[in-house]
Design brief:
2 helices; about 260 residues; five-stranded antiparallel beta sheet; single chain; four-stranded mixed beta sheet; mainly beta
Length: about 260
């Protein structure tokens, strides 16, 4: 089966990959439309999640991410083709200074075979009246991914002075960027393409489940009662065999001594 990757670009030098999960006969493509508001130290998001693919998504849940903090919404058992769902998420973020602050809205889901996938929307929340951005991402390209690939990101310096930019790549779970943050020096008005390698499934872990029966404590002889009976039966069988062997030996001797 083939995985489809949809690239979504936001205005600052940062980008996000959205993963569309395959199903048996098509693909699941998730559209994320958030309305985000910052008020009194809390970041709230009204999120509309739509399935614009041609297969139903299962176990769908929206997650709001800001820095190291996360808020997860309730799980919807299924999201049919063409259907939408709404989620309300909120995070305490404290007092933020003037600037543009990135946030993520992730949507976790599975296909019909319960394989997990994730789509991500990356956006900016503006505090105060910051000046215009000094750099921009003008283009993002990626070849189809089998096990590893490369993102090609075109950066543009929007000022006539040298800029030191920090390029951050955000990917869904299941994709690993080997260098998620790169420092890039841009000359005045320079436009440059930066290559970022990424790969599929660097680390995975699975776990199985079992059952342990807990019983009341027993004595040494109770726990091993069956083995004692087996041992006793073996000893009895040996004793009977010895007796029969002695009888047969005695008869043989009597027969040999008779005239």
């Amino acid at each position: 089966m083939r995985r489809l990757h949809r690239l979504v670009l936001v205005g600052a030098p940062a980008l996000v990959l959205c993963l569309a999960g395959p199903a048996a006969a098509g693909s699941i493509s998730i559209s994320i439309q958030p309305v985000v508001e910052l008020r009194e130290g809390a970041l709230s998001a009204q999120v509309k999640v739509s399935n614009v693919g041609d297969e139903a998504a299962e176990s769908v849940a929206a997650v709001l991410v800001f820095g190291e903090h996360k808020a997860r919404g309730e799980i919807h058992p299924s999201l049919a083709v063409g259907a939408s769902m709404d989620a309300t998420l909120s995070l305490a973020v404290g007092d933020l200074g003037t600037g543009r602050w990135p946030y993520q809205v992730a949507v976790d889901y599975t296909d019909a075979n319960q394989y997990p996938f994730q789509a991500i929307h990356l956006g900016l929340v503006t505090v105060g009246s910051p000046p215009p951005a000094k750099a921009a991402v003008s283009e993002v390209k990626a070849d189809p991914l089998s096990s590893a690939g490369t993102l090609r990101i075109r950066l543009k310096n929007l000022a006539g002075v040298v800029r030191q930019a920090s390029l951050t790549v955000v990917t869904p779970e299941g994709l690993e960027v080997t260098a998620p943050v790169q420092d890039v020096k841009l000359a005045a008005w320079e436009e440059r393409t930066v290559s970022v390698p990424f790969e599929d499934g660097v680390h995975q872990a699975v776990a199985g489940q079992g059952m342990v029966a807990i019983e009341a404590a027993h004595s040494f002889f109770e726990v091993r009662r069956t083995w004692f009976w087996i041992a006793a039966g073996v000893l009895v069988a040996l004793w009977v065999g010895i007796l029969l062997w002695r009888q047969m030996t005695a008869r043989s001797r009597r027969t040999e001594s008779s005239p």
